[in-house]
Amino acid sequence: MWVRIQQEPFDPGAESNAFFLTDGAAGATVTFTGLVRSTPDNPIDALILEHHPTMAKKQIERFANEAMEKFELVDIAVIHRFGEMKVGEVIVQVMAASPHRQAAFDGANYVMDWLKTDAPFWKQEVTSDGAKWVQHRKSDDQAREKWQTKTPPKQS
Amino acid sequence: MKILYFAWLRERMNKGSEDVSPPTDVATIDQLIDWKSASDESFALAFQDREIIRASIDDELVESDAKIEGAREIAFFPPMTGG
């Protein structure tokens, strides 16, 4: 398990390829990559991410460790950037490895859902009118809630 | 102890951090906000929407009734929007 918080851009493919090689016990890996987007109804030039450095690292490490344990992953790694990034640049990447595919999907999903609401990062969207703070989304809270309320699968 | 401000709270406070020495009867995050609001007008304005403001003590997310005794660093911030 490792977590990196950095300002510099990174190559998502190179990171993913390096992660594949970490352990022969993985039969599946899932890579989630989050990008800066600009859409016709919300066009932006760039994002600026502010963060709380020590707390951000600790929180993400906590979610990654929880995912390791909960889904019995072989390994998990998270890279999250801060500072200014242009449209199309990578913000975050989560890579999960497990013996079988479902655990890798779930592990990456779990870390992203918690990270969205409980890791101390704040986005500002930059447009020609200036910069404005991104509003917290209720749907992100709901996505996180599902991990708290999910009932265990029934034994057949 | 040190207080840190992030995102629009930092902008409204016009600073990222400050040192404070609350009296001993200021025991919780809520009471710290009350105490600061009473003496600092810009703090009171910045913390108007206090039900949405979140806090951490020494890098741990806490609720507003959390005890601040022994805290080294308290951070205040809006809901998080990372990922």
pLDDT average of chain A, as an integer?
93
Which CATH top level class of chain B fits? Alpha Beta
* Largest sheet strand order of chain B: 2-1-5-3-4
> Percent helix among the residues of chain B?
25-40%
The ordered H/E elements of chain A are: EHEEHEEEHEEH
Structural Rg of chain B: 12 Å
Under CATH, the topology of chain B can be stated as Ubiquitin-like (UB roll)
Most extensive interface between two protein chains, with residue counts:
A-B, 29 and 16 residues
Task: Walk across the major sheet of chain A and give the strand order.
Answer: 1-4-6-2
Biggest sheet statistics of chain A: 4 strands, mixed
Helix-and-strand structural type of chain A:
alpha+beta
Task: Tell me what the structure shows.
The complex is a heterodimer of chains A (156) and B (83). Chain A contains 4 helices and 8 strands; from the N terminus they run βαββαβββαββα. Chain A has 156 residues and is of the alpha+beta class. Chain A has a single domain, classed as Alpha-Beta Complex (Aldehyde Oxidoreductase, domain 3), CATH 3.90.1170.40. In chain A, the strands form 2 sheets. A 4-stranded mixed sheet of chain A has the order 1-4-6-2, sandwiched between helices. In chain A, α2 packs antiparallel against α3 and α3 (101-118) packs across α4. Chain B is an alpha+beta fold and 83 residues long. Chain B has a single domain, classed as Beta-grasp domain (Ubiquitin-like (UB roll)), CATH 3.10.20.30. In chain B, 29% of the residues lie in helices and 23% in strands. Chain B is built from 3 helices and 5 strands; from the N terminus they run βαβααβββ. A 5-stranded mixed sheet of chain B has the order 2-1-5-3-4. In chain B, β3 (54-57) and β4 (60-62) form a beta hairpin. Chain B starts with a strand and ends in a 6-residue tail after the last strand.
Write the layout of secondary structure elements.
The complex is a heterodimer of chains A (156) and B (83).
Chain A: E1 2-6, H1 12-20, E2 28-35, E3 46-51, H2 53-70, E4 75-81, E5 83-86, E6 90-98, H3 101-118, E7 121-127, E8 130-133, H4 138-149
Helix pairs in contact in A: 2-3, 3-4
Chain B: E1 2-5, H1 7-13, E2 17-19, H2 29-39, H3 41-46, E3 54-57, E4 60-62, E5 73-77
Parallel strand pairs in B: 1-5
Antiparallel strand pairs in B: 1-2, 3-4, 3-5
